[in-house]
Design goal:
The protein is an alpha/beta fold. It has 10 helices and 9 strands. α2 packs parallel to α3, α2 packs across α9 and α5 runs parallel beside α7.
Length: 250
């Protein structure tokens, strides 16, 4: 195996939100193993340091750690400015942070709970795009990937808040990608499907966790999606359908 195939993301700068657990953690580690320098964003310093230990053990390189709550909008703007000063660009943006919220009839949703779901899953990602867009445009082939869910379209009972937030996310990411048509930036949503995460366990407490894939199973697919020498598909990509495929070469 040559060095290019072993480290297809060498020299790339990657920001991952929700990087301290679940799918976000698996993606952060996968990107680092593929050669990217990972900027890991999470809410707690201790969890970020544990992630950094994992990345260092696997790659011999440290991540850049950013303890930040995504709902702190000013913090995202300040992060964009700080990354511009330090790196001058951003090659890869992965929005993996999210909250499930209460699974309850729409008429029973608590206003504070609704605001929390929408601010985390939708508004924060819009602010993230807004803050990182200038940096993505400065990259050779900027890639923005956001995690969505099938409930954005299936409209499952009791999932109203979460479904609304993901439907809105798909809309905003789709619009952003269309706006980037004449640039080298591409933005997509990925539906990972059932994964062995804390969120999944909260939604399906009776499910055998061993019956669904571990989060690290999706990492190679995300690495392929964000490679600069490949063109990612448009729209929403379902990992279950395309997990064994590779995006087309550019």
């Amino acid at each position: 195996m040559n060095s290019d195939s072993a480290k297809p993301l060498a020299g790339r700068i990657a920001l991952v939100t929700g990087a301290t657990r679940g799918i976000g953690e698996a993606i952060a580690v996968g990107l680092a193993k593929a050669g990217a320098h990972v900027i890991a964003l999470g809410r707690t310093q201790g969890a970020l340091e544990a992630l950094d230990d994992t990345i260092f053990a696997a790659t011999g390189e440290h991540a850049t750690l950013v303890p930040l709550d995504l709902r702190e909008a000013d913090g995202l703007d300040q992060l964009g400015a700080a990354l511009f000063e330090r790196f001058g660009k951003l090659d890869i943006l992965v929005g993996a942070a999210g909250v499930l919220g209460a699974l309850t009839p729409v008429g029973h949703l608590d206003p504070k709970g609704w605001d929390m779901i929408l601010s985390t899953n939708l508004t924060a990602n819009w602010r993230l795009i807004r803050a990182m867009d200038p940096l993505l445009r400065r990259a050779e082939a900027g890639r923005a990937v956001f995690l969505t869910s099938s409930v954005a379209k299936t409209h499952r009972a009791f999932w109203g808040g979460y479904a609304a937030s993901k439907a809105g996310l798909e809309a905003i990411v789709g619009c952003y990608d269309d706006e980037m048509e004449n640039t080298t930036v591409r933005a997509i949503c990925v539906d990972p499907g059932a994964m062995r995460t804390r969120m999944r366990a909260g939604a399906f407490p009776g499910e055998d966790p061993q019956s669904v894939p571990a989060p690290d199973s999706i990492a190679p697919f995300i690495v392929n999606l964000v490679r600069p020498d490949r063109v990612p598909p448009k729209g929403v990509v379902r990992f279950k359908d395309r997990g064994q495929e590779s995006p087309s070469e550019g």
